[in-house]
Structure formats: C-alpha cells, structure tokens
Amino acid sequence: MDTTQLLKGVLDLAVLAVLREEDGYGYDILRRLRAAGLEEVGDASVYGTLRRLFAAGLLTTYVVPSEAGPHRKYYALNAAGRDQLTRSGKLWRSFATTMDRLLDERGMTA
Questions:
Q1: InterPro entries this protein is in (predicted)?
Q2: Which DSSP category does 56 fall into?
Q3: 1-54: per-residue pLDDT in tens?
Q4: How deeply is 10 buried, as exposed, middle or buried, from its count of CB atoms within 10 A (0-12, 13-18, 19+)?
C-alpha cells in the first residue's frame, strides 16, 4: 500500500493533533510528525497543510523573533481548530475500528 496516499487523507488530522500539545513553527511541526512515526511526510505537504488550515480558520499564527536567523511563524490551534480536531478524531477512530474489524474478520490481523 502506498503510504503517501494514506498520509494525504490524514495529514490535516495529524497536524492538528501535534498542535494540540504545543504551538509550533513549520519545521518543528514536521520534526514532531516524523518523530511520531510519520517519517515519509514531506516538507511541502506540511507547509501546504499549515497554510490551508490557517486559511480555513482553524489555526492562528504569531511571529517570534530569532537572534540566529529569520523570525519564525508559529501556528496554534484556536477554538475552531480544537472543534475540528475533536470531530476528525472521532471520524478517524470510527474508520480505524471498521478497518480493524474488516481485517480481523478476514484473518488478516497484524
């Protein structure tokens, strides 16, 4: 199975979940996703997702000056983003449970 196709479907949820814990800037969010096990996620995918989630009103941003390099734009969940995370998380859990059941019923347990 092509992992990149799976990532496309869940990247919004993964980014929202990472930001639930702590605000972050682009590279930091990418690093945290990879550390969580999404090693194949691409830089451009994460930055595009952040822009899309911000445009959809699910994130806020703020800039933090840096003495060593350019300023960093941080992303944070707002109330709409937390609501979306809750809704999407429930949908994901339901979908994953259904897939687990289908695979178990067909003798395909991991």
A1: Metal_resp_DNA-bind_regulator, Tscrpt_reg_PadR_N, WH-like_DNA-bd_sf, WH_DNA-bd_sf
A2: T
A3: 667 777 777 999 999 999 998 999 999 999 999 999 999 999 999 999 999 999
A4: middle
CA–CA gap between residue 31 and residue 9 (Å, rounded) = 19
Say which residue the tokens 């990472």 belong to.
Answer: 18
Helix, coil or strand: residue 25: strand
Q: Which residue has the tokens 């196709």?
A: 5
40 token code pair: 């194949």
Q: Tokens in use for 31?
A: 């690093």
Record the pTM.
0.87
Q: Which helix (H) or strand (E) holds 24?
A: strand 24-25
* Residue 60, token pair as written in the block: 């806020």
Whole-number Å distance between alpha carbons of 60 and 30: 17
pLDDT of residue 97: 94
3-class SS at 91?
helix
What is the distance in angstroms between the CA of the first residue and the CA of the last residue of the chain?
15
